[in-house]
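Q: I'm writing up a methods section and want to include an example of the input and output format. Could you take the sequence below and give the corresponding predicted structure tokens, formatted cleanly so I can copy it straight into the document?
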Amino acid sequence: MSKRPKMLASVIREIVAPVLRECPRECGMVSLTEAEVSNDFSHATLYVSALREPDLALRFLEGRLPELQRSLGQLHRKRIPILRFRKDLRTERGIRIEELLQ
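A: Here is the clean output for your methods example:
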């Protein structure tokens, strides 16, 4: 990834972060673990981790997509990436490996 998509990914993280704090309590702590912006700036994939109920956190964030897309529009860029949320499976894999090792 070149420097420009990384910079945009950082800005997108700042825009999305306040919404993460509004996730339902059932989700536990929710965090944005990674943000990837395509080289042509058409898409931004945001990986989300939740202590509990990650699927509920994803549904909540997807419900807020129109608002988040409008917030990205304030960046005054020629191309605004379409946001996509994905569950970060690394945490689940780590827990599974730890269980297998025990």
